[in-house]
């Protein structure tokens, strides 16, 4: 976690001459003033409403706003001659503030004059919102490596890459200034400022895409522990006194607070809001319940009732009017989210500016598709998602009108492409040793198969796909490039270095992958974007027992300053519900006899800043920073 003094120093560096808002920041940093003036901070999620207008009035208002704020700024001018605002929201993207040596040639560019909203790919022709909060977190890492010029340059380059804004609790919608995270409204305001800045540079407004992750379902993480949530509709099996009513709170205290923010200001209507719903939730209904013909994939005694029913299976006992069997708590929660976000996106009769994507796990989770079996994971997944989306129609609007597509590999490590591994049906047997008969050997083969099957089952609906590439680079000496060798059935030639494809926590030797970009492979129109859903450097889950490091003990005192900060952060109430999972523990045994290989350092709770993992991801980046294979 970034200390208060370090955070304030970074703000001072950005703003050489302070605006009124910056004065409020310094007042808060001084310790005597109210923190209410600090730019709100959060790890967000959600959606908004918008207009398709690209009239000059939008540019005029942007120019007026930008020029008035820059009139008192002493920041340097960009190459185009437009003065940068002292506001960190704009400084985060201004070329004049970039001091790294790696060219920013891979950055997404907007298309001036393009329609602000679209019925197609919401990433196309659009600038991408860059969260200043993530830059602030990375500033901490910059300070830790001060003097290492090469590493500093790499961090500065990573700071210029967009990533999603997470809202994993009710509180994060309002922000967490102490952790350097602004509110959802603060992110939307920053996105508007960035859109206005580009409009002034270009002379005409362009689309601006902001990606948010809605992540607070009741009974979240039913088959694991690292990201347990705060809301319960059913309750954990071993919890004697759960506070229930989570579905109502999910709708009223969480989703509707999000949608209220999205529709609060008319300028938000010019933004494209991509909302990814509830990572890892619905895939659990496909594989970790008795809906799986082979039974639940994961069974934990701590998450099992006295009669042997798993926690995930108990969620299927939930019923509601019109809810189809097999959807349960997660299915109903997702249907509510789909409807609430669509209502926000179309509020006031404007063109829908909320583009909703559903999480579909990753290739090693739902990718199995056996042409000879009616029960393959992929077939059951497509059927399940069809039921889920179709049922999001209690407002009288077809659910398929409200969902843009799917996102894979969220927070994951599966490579975009395995350059030397075949995805052919005929090679499934030869690859069974590691791929376990799964011909979805990478994320491209997975989304291709998922897209083809869904389109054949749901005529007329053409879903798009996003692949999270933040941590699936797997850079290593002599790593092959796609297209440089013949694909075959020798799994030892894979670039994925995990002991098992299901290993998901703080994976060792992973690296930053392809930077975010729209439509990265022209031949695959269903692939809408590579995007960094989980910002590189945010932890997957805590890796140690806090009780082993009591403050002041010999064990605690032996830690370096970075690890002491990790231990100190573990008691922060914002991590309530998140606990130690053996997937995150060094030496832990999972997936039969497979030992997990995690980053050999103390990791904070899921979502906390993991400096040592961040440096590892940079060191193992592939492709080389500043380049692309696609």
Question: Care to count the β-strands?
Answer: 11
The major β-sheet equals: 9 strands, mixed
- DSSP helical segment count: 19
Strand content: 5-15%
Radius of gyration equals 23 Å
Cα-to-Cα separation, first versus last residue: 35 Å
The stretches of 5 or more residues where confidence is low (pLDDT under 50) are: 1-83
User: Average pLDDT, to the nearest integer?
Assistant: 87
Describe this structure in words.
The longest helix has 19 residues, at 184-202. The protein is an alpha/beta fold and 630 residues long. It starts with a helix and ends in an 11-residue tail after the last helix. It is globular. Helices cover 31% and strands 7% of the residues. Strands 1, 2, 3, 4, 5, 6, 7, 8 and 9 form a 9-stranded mixed β-sheet that branches. A hairpin with an 8-residue loop joins strand 8 and strand 9 (527-531).
Which secondary structure elements does this structure contain, and how are they paired or packed?
Elements: H1 4-14, H2 20-30, H3 56-70, H4 88-91, E1 127-128, H5 132-144, H6 149-159, E2 165-167, H7 171-174, H8 184-202, E3 208-214, H9 246-262, E4 271-277, H10 282-287, H11 311-315, H12 328-345, E5 354-359, H13 363-366, H14 377-390, E6 403-408, H15 432-435, H16 443-457, E7 464-468, E8 517-518, E9 527-531, H17 554-557, H18 561-569, E10 589-590, E11 594-595, H19 611-619
Helix pairs in contact: 1-2, 1-5, 3-8, 5-6, 9-12, 14-16
